[in-house]
Design goal:
352 residues, 8-stranded parallel β-sheet
């Protein structure tokens, strides 16, 4: 591929394989798929995910991502996060004028602000009560604390109570598959029990939205699960692929050798070009190449390299696809060595 580097590559056959594997799992199940846009932030790929089937809409991490989707005609969007502040609430209302939209809350102040804005704008906004399963991030505690908040928000004007959001984020990277299965079930059962508690107290609870690409097969068959917010499955990275090898690594970065000295080489990429939160990058097709550290902004030094020459291109595999995609503005979609399309990453950099 004759491209300037670094360039974000997407293997079309591997992407389509991944989309099909996930869609097939959810086919004819009560729980359905709500792919997480934060993984790739690309409108074209999002449309492809919906076309693969078994999907009810899209999940976002940020309101800015939801705005991009609404502007491109997507009509069922969940912001799986707290939307706080008068400016953001006004933006949320504008999205609700274009699409069915939902948002997570874990405090009455959040819900009340959204309710007031929705009522004044004569729109309806869905509310998911977020329950903390042990990740210690956002969310009310399971059980009575969640019931108390549900009672406060259920009758607020301008909102639609859509059930519970619960993310088992502290279990998704457990390397031992049996441990991951056990811990994921234990965690998500807290959300199931909370959903039951709401129903027992007269609060209709449609179900639970949550899950991840490495836990979908466990969570997707549990009682009360309504939809799963799987993200990384579409592109994959080497860390996630260790956990769910049925998916293929479709995402790589084309880089170039810019310096060569003995058994060492330097590539034209650093931490500004690849997410490395979950481990050092790897080199496609060259497992023996060693990357001693990955801290430089624009360089990656390696040792034990093969007979690369200055100017040769190398494919880089990140340990975190989501933060990598956020750094680029387009995917170079390829079939083998041929670039067949360029897909814009419309929501790249949407941090608010």
């Amino acid at each position: 591929m004759d491209l300037d580097t670094p360039a974000l590559l997407l293997d079309i056959h591997k992407v389509d394989h991944n989309l099909q594997v996930m869609a097939d799992f959810f086919r004819n199940k009560t729980c359905q798929l709500r792919p997480h846009f934060k993984n790739h932030k690309c409108v074209t790929l999002a449309r492809r995910q919906l076309a693969a089937g078994s999907a009810v809409g899209l999940t976002c991490a940020k309101l800015g991502e939801a705005e991009v989707l609404a502007d491109h005609g997507f009509d069922d969007i969940l912001v799986a996060n707290q939307v706080v502040g008068s400016i953001k609430v006004k933006r949320l209302v504008e999205v609700a004028k274009k699409a069915k939209v939902g948002v997570a809350v874990d405090a009455i102040e959040q819900a009340a602000a959204i309710s007031n804005a929705a009522r004044d704008a004569k729109v309806e906004i869905g509310i998911l009560l977020e329950v903390d399963l042990g990740m210690a991030r956002c969310g009310t505690q399971p059980g009575e604390e969640s019931l108390k908040l549900a009672r406060q928000i259920i009758d607020l004007p301008g909102i639609r109570f859509d059930g519970i959001q619960a993310y088992e984020g502290h279990t998704v990277y457990l390397s031992d598959s049996q441990q991951r299965y056990i811990k994921t079930q234990e965690a998500m059962q807290k959300a199931v029990d909370t959903c039951d508690l709401l129903e027992q107290n007269g609060i209709p609870c449609r179900g639970i939205s949550g899950g991840a690409s490495s836990t979908y097969a466990t969570v997707g068959i549990m009682r009360r699960m309504l939809e799963l917010q799987c993200g990384t499955y579409a592109t994959m990275d080497w860390r996630y692929q260790e956990l769910v090898p049925q998916f293929q690594i479709a995402l790589t970065i084309l880089t170039r050798v810019i310096s060569r000295n003995g058994d060492r080489a330097v590539l034209d990429i650093g931490v500004k070009g690849a997410g490395a939160e979950f481990g050092l990058p790897k080199i496609k097709g060259h497992p023996d190449v060693v990357i001693p550290f990955f801290l430089a902004e624009e360089h990656c030094a390696m040792k034990n390299v093969p007979s690369w020459r200055v100017g040769d291109t190398v494919e880089f595999i990140s340990s975190h696809a989501c933060t990598t995609c956020n750094l680029y503005r387009e995917f170079y979609v390829h079939d083998g060595e041929k670039v067949i399309d360029i897909w814009p990453i419309e929501a790249s950099g949407k941090l608010s």
